[in-house]
Amino acid sequence: MRGTRSELPLHPIDQMPIIKADCLRYAIAFRGLLSPDTIFNLVNIVPNFLIASSVVVHSYAAVLFEKILFMTIPDQPSLTPLVTKAKISTPDLLIQRCLEALSRPTSCENVYLMRALLRICCCLEERCLPCMNDLVIVLATRLTQIIKNPSKPQFNHFLFECLCLCVRLTCSTDPAFITQFENTLFMIFQEILQQDITEFFPYVFQLLAVMLEQYPLGPNARELFAQKRKVAGLEPLPQYQQLSNQPMLNPAYAALLPRLLVPALWETQGAVMSLARLMQAYLLHNVEAVVSTNKVEAILGVYQRLLNSKTNDVYAFSIITAFLLAFPRANLQPFLKQIFICIFQRLQSAKTEKFMRCLTTFLAQFVLIFGANELVQIVDGVQNRIFSRVLEKVLIPHAELAISSPVAHSNAGDGQQGANGASGTYSSLSSTCFSRLAREDYLTVAAGLSILVTQADALCAPMANGMTTSYHADAFVPFVQSILAGLLAGPARCGAIAADAAALSATVENANSASSPPIFTDERFTDVAGESASFVLIFGRCKLPTLSPGVFDPRIYFAKCLENLAQRFPGTISQELQTGLSNEAKATLEAYCAQGMVRLE
């Protein structure tokens, strides 16, 4: 590598392009064997080659720089970049060189350059804001050009990823900047939709969702999340404290909504995922438009159609969860029974493993929103004591997988290649367990099911007390055992080490939540493939506050929930667990109780 390092800066940029290309390719192939000092030297050297006239040289330079930013410090509980934004000495010059390379006729749709630009902006975060105006103008201009003759799907994908990132980065400093993005992009979106350029529809809908989400959450969702943090003893999130500075919603969103619910549009390739994502944004950030345009029933109709599809049922649950968050409980009352009737009809017709995990996750979220007794009451209201069947056929068999193996996750950590290799406590973990989505689902589903099994009177009140409401009590111990199995499996089924890493990461992240800029953990370390077949924008994912703030280690939380239950029924609960749990489950529970300094008596 010493020869490579000396060869790169030795000659003017455009001399000896073959040697320079070989050196860059060598560094790409063996970057995992390089020392951190060598990597940092390359960070300063490689950007010079982005302005090389040779397409091969500046393409290899883009690939190498992107791969370097993808590298992590080995053996950390969370994904920690080897090259931080502070290590980039001239961020504005770096971005300008990328834009200059993209302006060359031979590289105006260079996938490697656009992908590198995406990773650079993600790494720099707020340090790229001084260049944001130039960056957005270039991206919007290029989008205007490519819609006339789309030819490179991967380039198009990365272009929309960059636009999503620009919106989120800029508006995180001041949400009022969203109006500038709307002024720049709405005309382009209108042209795409009017000319029926269907290959761009999924990207437009996801980017619209991201733009809509720069406005405040609706009043009910905002109050719910604020109350959750208050009960947990946490400070309010800064973005929800000063709403006076928030921009007024652009009426164009409300005007567009009726067209988005035309059934034919949902038949377009890739449209279901992106339209469901946009419906989620409408419900959470512009529910007034849903009500004023009388589209509540139409959205519920979409939910019902998606629920009956084995391919798209996961999107039905994302829409209906947003629906539950968007409206006050009293407004939801007329719809709740029908929501569950649709679920039970699907259960009778087609039970796939994915559907059962999604349903278990949804029930856990329902408990976190409304409470355990409310769930039992509504389900039993559909048919007397049918909640027993839900426990027997859904929750007990599928709680373990729902907790430990989420349906939705990112591939964050695929680039878990640190300098000089890695070996240690966390180095053996799979990439998926580093995913924020996997960790959040592990925590949220476990917290919701913990509340359900310990606070639903019909489930956890001992039969020995003669309580006529405890008609599901025979499922209590099996349900506890299933939850313990999920907690033991850990995030992405990577065991106790992954669970320890997730708990440590959540604790540190909470301590920094009030002061930190946007954290693109999953996004930065996800190897964005740009596959047009899926159309999913990594930077277009929904970001919501957690429904279980204050829960940093679900294993300890579950033990404390059981402790509170045992205090309600002294001697009874601990005896049931002692006689009903398997030896492995008892050992697991004892370990969690010891870890949380909990006594079950």
TrEMBL record:
Family annotation (InterPro entries): ARM-like, ARM-type_fold, XPO2_C, XPO2_central
A GO-annotated cellular component: cytosol
SUPFAM superfamilies in UniProt: ARM repeat
Designated name of the protein: CAS_CSE1 domain-containing protein
Gene3D superfamilies assigned: Leucine-rich Repeat Variant
Gene Ontology molecular functions: nuclear export signal receptor activity; small GTPase binding
GO annotation (BP), single: protein import into nucleus
Pfam families documented for this protein: CAS_CSE1, Cse1
Annotated ranges, domain Exportin-2 C-terminal: 66-216, 245-400
Residue stretches making up the Exportin-2 central domain: 13-63
